[in-house]
Amino acid sequence: MTPSALPLGDPAPVDGLLPAQAAEGAVDRKFGLYVHIPFCSVRCGYCDFNTYTATELGGGASQAAYGGTAQQEVALAARVLKASGLPDRPLSTVFFGGGTPTLLPAEDLAGILKSAIGAWGLVPGAEVTTEANPDSVTPESLQLLADAGFTRVSFGMQSAVPHVLAVLDRTHTPSRVPLAVQWARDAGLKVSVDLIYGTPGESLADWEFSVKEALSYEPDHISAYALIIEDGTKLAARMRRGEVPPIDDDDHADKYLLADELMTAAGLSWYEVSNWSRTPADQCRHNLAYWRSDDWWGVGPGAHSHAGGVRWWNAKHPTAYAQRLGAGESPAVGRETLDAETRYVEDVMLRTRLAEGLELSRLKDSGRLAVAGLMADGLVDPKAALTGRVLLTTKGRLLADAVVRRLLPD
Predict the structure, then answer these.
(1) Candidates 3.30.420.10, 1.20.140.10, 3.20.20.70, 2.80.10.50; correct CATH number of 10-291?
(2) Considering the entire predicted model, what is its pTM?
């Protein structure tokens, strides 16, 4: 998903060409594509992503034209990468996020994917995912996506409890989820479900019911994220007015531990702090590429891209985005070239969250010295440390941010 606020950075050139650093070592990095579909039928009360309902769009931007506009950026991306000296690399992963990608006709999503395959090709067995709301798919649309080359669908389930879904402004009913999961399976797609815990008014029993329901569908993958209340959202305003209770960190911890216990018992294993998969092959390879700092191009308004420590981002509003592409210009409006220290900090932050752990050799001396104290505090696994890796314990996963702060220099 793409955040609503764009970072500060330097202006991006109109032609989109990248600095030389982006190409350095690229032949050894995987390459993926993210496609942002910025449309939703209803804006959820907790959502801070760059999304729009049909009534919020103006100035010529439309869902009907979006597929063609996205294909324009795919063509531009291929030209920019080649002109910037990056090697030809087939796509290892493609991920359609949003918003609700499946609000677009399946034919439009298939068309965007076809243009991407035409531009770069796919590695054998490439992962191609779309996010979806359970009420935005049909058996026919899912089969069309599978036939077009999609391999995986991630359903925004969030909860199985009606009053929790109501607080989150979700539009689907709980009974729709198992239907959508079965349709996806019938189409030959792998299935992931996303859950959110810590919604105001959600009891521990509510959360346990939701996790057990999700597990009963036997998905290949589950993501479980703690609800974060972002400024500017409808839910933040309701909380300020006292209409819903505030977030409770202890409640979050209890629910995380319960989810991990239930998922482990059901045969899923954590591979990143908020993600569990049935087998290693079921891990979300696209997200792993983010956590390992591989290269990816982000298509769509507000989408972010990365290559070799160079990051850039597109115009936020769909109208401005479309206008730039229509004028033959890059939609990128800003970028930053990360220095070695920033790249080191991000590497430690992201890799520490993985079940494969962070190699001790990647740490500076101060970080390696901190590991003994983290082991003593029960946050890092001693056996893994002896084999040269920083691996979070269950307690360490609850305090992952604090672990990272101790691993990084002052």
Answers:
(1) 3.20.20.70
(2) 0.92
